[in-house]
Design brief:
The chain is mostly helical and 410 residues long. The protein has 17 helices and 2 strands. A hairpin with a 2-residue loop joins strand 1 and strand 2.
Length: 410
């Protein structure tokens, strides 16, 4: 090593190579010490998750050093290569790129790979690992705690804000009848004074009505597009955390990383009850069925809390979400149980959030204004609505049993 360092230092243009060589050699020594430490540890102790948890900080420090030197040494050995992320491109590779044929499968795979390696997914994934290491909780509790924390920080404020927008829109809609009455009188007067035709009067009336409505929206800062703000926050959060948990199970984005292997090993031992291994499917189907029941409950509670008859579009969307809730049951049965656990926890939080924001006392506490459509006793109303639906369903089934189809006897 000394002779090689002398040869490199004799050339003033090779100062950077000297630093690379020295750093690379020192890192090899550190890695050798770390390998010796692992080799001298009993295998039974290595198999236990406590070894990885107690040594996670040392492991991560070694991995950071190894990863840095991996990039540096690759550049030192092959300076003619172009480094892109974790991969390298040589001039020979550039000829192959021009001959590549794109396909649907490759496009989908590339999309999922990009999503798996995106910054939001990486933040959530590393945050879950850090929370697990910091609290010492099992992985099933870490998944639940992370879900509740993110939903509380992201979706709960958005749900409160969305309810405020809906209440303001209902309040300004109560002002419209007086404005409509005044606009009709002004339009009738203008028709006589300026000799407008009926078509011209209708155009001016619609223009004035739209202008008045926009003025009210600006005054209350309640654009109707803001009523979808909860979906804009909830759907990306659901996708990001689902992909982050999938990465933990699949040891992505780098399966050779020690952190990924440690997390996977702990997931295999971090379950509870009927799912001791969180990387396997829930063969009992408890979580998939619970997911479908919770999602259907959310939809039925939202439908039962309406004080007005639903429009045709609302009925279509309600039936669509009912079908999606049933479709999620077989999908949840085909994914690892830790991912299904996250979905059930997120849906259960959404159910509790919807029930909480129905209470008039809670709505006044968070600043949601009172509106005529608000239920004074929402929980009694929902209970009576469900009882009426169950009674009608049981009566329909009873009538079918009392009147069997006629027999066809010769």
């Amino acid at each position: 090593m000394r002779e090689s360092c002398k040869q490199i230092s004799s050339n003033p243009n090779h100062s950077h190579s000297l630093r690379i060589h020295t750093l690379y050699t020192s890192t090899n020594i550190s890695c050798s010490k770390f390998s010796l430490r692992l080799s001298t540890t009993p295998s039974s102790f290595l198999a236990s998750p406590s070894f990885f948890v107690t040594n996670s900080s040392a492991t991560m420090s070694y991995l950071r050093t190894i990863r840095t030197i991996g990039h540096t040494s690759a550049f030192a050995r092959h300076p003619h290569r172009t480094v892109v992320g974790r991969s390298t491109i040589t001039p020979g590779h550039l000829q192959v790129v021009s001959q590549r044929h794109f396909s649907y499968e490759a496009t989908v795979a590339g999309f999922w790979q990009t999503l798996s390696q995106s910054a939001p997914v990486a933040y959530v994934q590393q945050g879950m690992i850090n929370l697990h290491d910091l609290t010492g909780l099992p992985w099933w509790a870490t998944v639940i705690l992370t879900t509740v924390g993110l939903r509380t920080l992201v979706t709960l404020p958005l749900a409160v804000y969305q309810n405020k927008i809906l209440a303001r829109l209902e309040q300004i809609s109560l002002e419209m009848p007086e404005l409509i009455k005044e606009l009709k009188a002004e339009t009738a007067y203008a028709m006589k004074k300026f000799n407008w035709t009926e078509k011209e009067a209708r155009i001016m009336y619609n223009h004035s009505l739209k202008k008045q409505w926009n003025n009210l929206i600006v005054r209350e800062n309640c654009h109707p597009a803001k009523t979808m703000v909860l979906l804009w926050g909830q759907i990306p959060l659901w996708i990001v955390q689902s992909v982050a948990i999938r990465n933990l199970v699949s040891m992505l984005p780098d399966p050779t990383a020690i952190e990924a292997q440690i997390a996977y090993t702990e997931l295999t031992l971090g379950g509870f009850g009927w799912i001791p291994n969180l990387t396997e499917l829930d063969h009992s189907l408890i979580f998939p069925v619970a997911l479908g029941v919770i999602n259907l409950s959310i939809i039925e509670i939202q439908a039962a809390s309406r004080t007005k008859l639903p429009s045709k579009l609302q009925t279509i969307f309600t039936n669509l979400f009912r079908g999606l809730s049933i479709l999620m049951v077989p999908i949840a049965a085909s994914v690892p149980s830790c991912l299904c656990l996250y979905w059930v926890t997120s849906s259960a939080y959404g159910l509790g959030q919807n029930l909480l924001l129905l209470s008039p006392r809670v709505r006044r506490t968070v600043g949601i204004p009172a509106v005529p459509s608000e239920l004074t006793h929402p929980y009694q109303h929902i209970r009576s609505t469900f009882a009426a639906k169950l009674g009608a369903l049981s009566g329909r089934l009873g009538s079918n049993n009392q009147h069997p189809p006629p027999s066809t006897k010769a």
